[in-house]
Write a structure and sequence with these properties.
Belongs to the FAD-dependent glycerol-3-phosphate dehydrogenase family. With 497 residues, this protein is an alpha+beta fold. The chain has 13 helices and 20 strands.
């Protein structure tokens, strides 16, 4: 089935990862009409496969990427205020290994890191002594501690898509971009829904933010521009039962000069990653290899007294990062910067391609992208995203919001109240305001996932499948049994019919 009348819009954005969603929100907030299409679920590829960190990138200082680190640290402070529900400050400990990096070098790096950051919200770095009561091997006597932040990466994408929709954007997940042809000042693009419906979009500008598919997408846009080649790098993570009880994370050095994070994850687990492996193939089929599992475990077992094996791994995930190609550079040393290219004129259709980037600097990338596009849209207003909270983020602190909800919804179980605050902030009011008891939350699918939340995710946040709900909107897939998954799947099928 094909729609014959074109849908007219200012921008057609291809790609519903963090960059596409961020650009959609920024542009829609400046008064531009926006259509965003994503071939899968929002944030279902690279953007939900990160280490879940908003950080400057301490290791990038060794590569002299001072500008990148400064920009990322500045954005870290902005995002902590924009999304207090899905972000939290996180302390990191770097165990000292004298044969890998001398103390003076680490001290210098942390001194620069602290100075590049404003530190108006986070504690400065310090040196600490390790003893036998800690989780580290006995030969590790010293750690260096510093601050960064944790984020729910998949929810960050969804919140930007919600912000875009609130400003009038049309968000189309599970909709594939087919091709586009230039018609003087406009593009005529074809997109296709998962149900086979083909639609024509008439857009003044196309933004190619397809992540690891950016080059293949570019081939379907005429005229194409292959000035910037991409390097695809696979990053894999493993999840194991928690290695220690404290709330800080670790950053582990390795003999190959790489670093690996160990991060407290979803109360009961430790998240370990990432690898950096050059990738060739379909980014949609990426999987962790046995060698990657062994690599990550070997590093962790070198540092921790609790020894972990492949049998202990409860979950894995991998993503393909589209990085700017650099000659004679190892996968781990390739820049995490980004490049925006723009072609077209006032008399021609406009094409923007987004190459590279990292989740920490997505908002800055989006703002710069729309600044460049705004010259073609005289009515576009000024940049706005630096000071406006993402949906659900209009509150001072999690503890204050939790106290407010404990008074407004005294029947709500305390642990569930805490989950809702951290996952939704004030958005949870959309499904709590009409309830008056735990029973009113409806069917319990397990592990504090209730029918009202599932209905909200389906109706308001584009969730259609079990995977959407259990692995991206929440992380409850780590806890659900096969029977519980099947039960939820059956319920979702009734919503879809």
């Amino acid at each position: 089935m094909t729609s014959t009348t074109p849908f007219v819009t200012d921008l057609l954005i291809i790609g519903g990862g963090i960059n596409g969603a961020g650009i959609a929100a920024d542009a829609a907030g400046r008064g531009l009409s926006v259509v965003l299409c994503e071939q899968g679920d929002l944030g279902s590829a690279t953007s939900s496969s990160s280490s879940k960190l908003i950080h400057g990138g301490l290791r990038y200082l060794e590569q002299r990427e001072f500008r990148l680190v400064y920009a990322a640290l500045k954005e870290r402070e902005v995002l902590l205020k924009k999304a207090p529900h899905i972000m939290r400050p996180l302390r990191f400990r770097l165990p000292h290994q004298p044969h890998l990096r001398p103390q003076w070098l680490i001290r210098l790096g942390l001194f620069i890191y602290d100075r590049l950051a404003k530190r108006n919200q986070l504690e400065p770095s310090r040196k600490i002594h390790c003893d036998a009561s800690g989780p580290l091997s006995a030969d590790i006597k010293t750690c260096f501690e510093y601050s960064d932040a944790w984020v729910d990466d998949a929810r960050l994408v969804v919140l930007n898509a919600l912000a875009a929709r609130d400003k009038g954007a049309s968000i189309r997940p599970r909709t594939t971009f087919l091709h586009a042809d230039q018609q003087q000042q406009h593009w005529l693009a074809k997109i296709q829904s998962q149900h086979g419906k083909t639609e024509t979009i008439r857009a003044r500008a196309i933004v190619n933010a397809a992540g690891p598919w950016v080059m293949s997408t570019l081939h379907n846009v005429a005229p194409s521009d292959n000035a910037h080649s991409m390097r695809l790098v696979k990053g894999s993570h493993i999840v194991v039962p928690k290695l220690y009880s404290a709330e800080h994370a670790y950053i582990l050095q390795h003999e190959d000069q790489r670093i690996v994070f160990v991060i407290p994850y979803e109360n009961y687990f430790s998240l370990i990653g990432t690898t950096d492996v050059d990738f060739n193939g379909d980014p949609g089929d990426v999987q962790i290899s046995d060698n990657e599992k062994k690599y990550l475990l070997s590093i962790v077992n070198r540092y921790f007294t609790t020894q972990t094996s492949i049998a202990d791994i409860v979950h894995t995930f991998s993503g393909v990062r589209p990085l700017l190609e650099e000659e004679n550079t190892s996968a781990q040393a390739v820049t995490r910067g980004y490049k925006l290219t723009l072609s077209g004129s006032t008399e021609e259709a406009v094409l923007m391609n987004v190459f590279g980037g990292k989740i920490t600097t997505y908002r800055r990338l989006a703002e710069q992208a729309v600044n460049k596009l705004a010259r073609y849209f005289p009515a576009a207003t000024h940049a706005w995203t630096a000071t406006v909270p993402l949906p659900g983020g209009s509150f001072d602190s999690k503890s204050a919001l939790r106290s407010e909800y404990q008074q407004r919804f005294p029947w709500l179980a305390d642990d569930l109240c805490g989950e809702y605050v951290c996952r939704y902030g004030r958005l949870c009011e959309q499904f709590l305001d009409d309830t008056s008891s735990m029973a009113a939350l409806g069917e319990h699918f397990g592990h504090n996932l209730y029918q009202t939340e599932v209905d909200y995710l389906h109706d308001k946040e584009w969730a259609q499948t079990v995977e959407d709900i259990l692995w991206r909107r929440t992380k409850k897939g780590l806890l659900f049994s096969a029977e519980q998954v099947n039960h939820l799947q059956h319920y979702l099928s009734t919503l879809m019919n």
